[in-house]
Design a protein that fits this description.
Number of strands: 2
Largest sheet: 2 strands, antiparallel
Organism: Microbacterium aquilitoris
Pfam family, one: CbiQ
Number of helices: 9
Distance between the termini: 46 Å
Strand content: under 5%
Subcellular location: Membrane
Protein name: Energy-coupling factor transporter transmembrane component T
Strand order of the largest sheet: 1-2
Structural class: mainly alpha
Keywords: Membrane, Transmembrane, Transmembrane helix
Order of helices and strands: HHHHEEHHHHH
Amino acid sequence: MTVDPSATGSPGFLAHLSPLAKLAAPLPAMIVLVVARDLVTPLTFLALAYLLLLVGRRMSWRVAALLFVGLPIGAAIMGLALGLWVDAALVDDTPAVLRVGAWTLHAGAVEVGLATGARLAAILALGLIAGLTTTGPDLVRASVQQLRVPYRIGYAALAAIRFVPRFAYELELIRQAHRVRGAHGGRGPFAAVARGAGYVVPLLAGAIRHAERVALAMDARAFGAHPDRTERYLLPWRRRDTVFVLAFWAVSAATLAALFPWGL
């Protein structure tokens, strides 16, 4: 496997799989979760996604905070909020949880809302299997090499992905320069707006310069002149990718057969 020196993914067995395998494996489960209506099925797939991320990726504190604090709290808040929109006539045979005047919140509405929040959290967690273990350039290269995406589209997207860290770097330089010069100092909302407005023009000028350099570099390398190009970094589809996809599909099918969420 050729290693991209610009890749920043944490080590782990998931980092050594093809990006397309990590997208294809959870895709059927994500589609099924859209139509599942129970609470147990999304929680099961949520636990499966967490297990894979814990075992297959070295966990940083930011990722741990996202998975174990941000995602559960967000899903719970969203689930409770969605429960308020459930038609009371559909769940009026369940116990009342809260009464405010003539309005009643039933336990069935809370369960439906939490099930919806759990589905969204499970879909997001399954997507994070690829999102947290794959870099954007690797995904583009795998799509060009394996899915035969035209390299004109793929590498144009790759160039756009490279703009993001470049803009972050230039924005930090502009902030440091403004602090050194004492421009737009002070506190409060007006000072923050003034500082933000002062970043726009130099950041736009830097973006234009960077875009011109990228365009000249692509022209110098005859980008788009030929139907295909040679690849420096190869991301082949290996046997372990096939095993991972088939194993995930088998576990997903067994889980759905055991729970059968459509019968609820």
